[in-house]
Amino acid sequence: LFLNQIITDKDGNTEITPHRTGTSDGEHWTCRLTRTADNITYYYSVKMDGRETRHEWLTVPHVQAFNHDIVNLYTFYDHWIDMPFDSYLYSSAFTECLNRKAEVKLKRTMRSERILRLIVRAPQLRANQQLAVVGASPELGAWNLAKAIPMTERTINEWFVDIDARPFMGKNMEFKFVAVSDDGQRDWETRLNRSVFVPEMKAGELISYQLDQSFYAYHNQKIAGTLVPVFSLRSKDS
Asked: Which of 49, 68, 102, 152 is most deeply packed, by most CB within 10 A?
């Protein structure tokens, strides 16, 4: 398994630098990199006998931002991303026209010495919606949607939020994502509550979780004056 770093120079030329990962149990693969820029863009691939046999969906690669001056160790828990069934929502018709959103520049911040980052893709969101996270603990709003923490769309259809990890260390953090419209309407994602375990962390550490896609049951989406039926399917074990 390789982590392939995508490096683009100021002239727009792209270079792929592969980093081989290792495993001790055949299931969890890791590699360690030295930070050389303010972010890293990459994708995973599998090689056999020196030849690539499989790679992730490349339309939207992984992006991780190093936007905290006080953090010196970033740990990213990723998962392999294949082409989603709703890949059409990543087409220019949606990302540049129907659901176009303003590009966001990340600000450098020193809000906490121990940071938990949540990353999730939510391509079903409309142009007038923003993703937010709310949870069981008081720090996450105690399921009060009015106190949901807003997230930032860093790349196409991918949202993230950085949270002070200290109240959750050594515990399972229960939460859920919600789509918030400009008019104040809120729509819960169509799944059971999520949960991640937050380990003990040292000062200057950030842990990031790339989570499964978030889905929303919009039964009647109005696009350009036309009502479009949208169906959401759940498996019984989801």
From this structure: 68
Which DSSP symbol is given to 229? Answer: -
Question: How many other C-beta atoms lie within 10 A of the C-beta of residue 56?
Answer: 20
Closest-CA residue to 61 (of 181, 155, 148, 198) = 155
Chain segment 72-102, per-residue pLDDT in tens: 899 999 999 999 999 999 988 888 877 776 6
In this prediction the pTM is 0.83
Token representation of residue 96: 């540049």
Residue 67 CB neighbour total at 10 angstroms: 18
211: left (phi over 0), alpha (psi -120 to 50) or beta: beta
Residue 85: C-alpha distances to residues 71, 154, 232 (Å): 36, 22, 12
What does the DSSP 8-state code read for residue 167? G
With tokens 């989603």, the residue in question is 84
